[in-house]
Each structure stands twice: as C-alpha cells, then as structure tokens.
Design brief:
- This protein is an alpha/beta fold and 146 residues long.
- It has one domain: HUPs (Rossmann fold, 3-Layer(aba) Sandwich), CATH 3.40.50.
- 42% of the residues lie in helices and 20% in strands.
- It is globular, with a radius of gyration of 16 Å.
Amino acid sequence: MTDVHPVPLIVVGVDGSPLAETALEYAIEEARLRHASLQVTYAYPVLASALTGSTGNDYYHQVEDEAKSFLQAIVAKAPSTEGIEVEWLATPGNPSEVLIEASGAATLLVVGSRGVGGFMGLLMGSTSTQCVHYSHCPVLVVREDH
C-alpha cells in the first residue's frame, strides 16, 4: 500500500483592503513553506428578493462581472505566486460564510483583521471574528501591527 498525502490547501480571503493585501502576502509565503496550494477567495454580496428568494437575472450577471473584474485587479497587484498552484475565486455570498465553508477543505485559513465591511460589519460581527469561531481549520488573522 502506498501512502498518498494530499497537497495541503491554504484559503485566503481578499476584499481589496490593505490588510487583505497583507493577508494574501502571508498566505503566499505559507503556501511556499508548506508546499501547499492556494485558494484566493473574494466573496461578494448578492441581493435576493424577500418575496421570491431569487435575484434578477440582469442584476446578478452585472454583479458577477463586477466581482470578477475586482478580483482581476487584486490578481494584478498580487505578489508573485510562481511555483504555487493558485485558484482565484469570486464567490457570491456572505464573506464569513463563504470562507468558513471553504475552510472545510483547508489546512489554514488566512484573513485580515479589518476589511471593507463598514458599519454593517460592526453590527454583524467581523469576518475575521466569525472565521476564528467557526472555521474548520486553524485561522491566521493578520492584524495592522504585523
């Protein structure tokens, strides 16, 4: 019997904030050190109708296109990922829920301690706090003083 060790996976949440950029740098370095693959995830909100539970088709496509463009801008500014298997994802949904779900397959989740959540983030609890409490793997929270 042969031992097959799956490649570790590091998931990092990005949102365009300065701390998310730093979190991405940390995640890339960790992927190199651990010989891991990297999943860079940008979660974007999609509004659903309270009555039907669905989104308008035109609206959804516009939001999806904007999210993909936003992620491409992050890719363009990202440090080199040469030698690392990287998947860049723009995923609809609440950022903490998306990242917590992704953490189920990960060996490490990396997030910034402050993103672009604004006032609603203060009311609902920050993404990093939610990830620390509910993630399925260890979480590295990158703070401002790093």
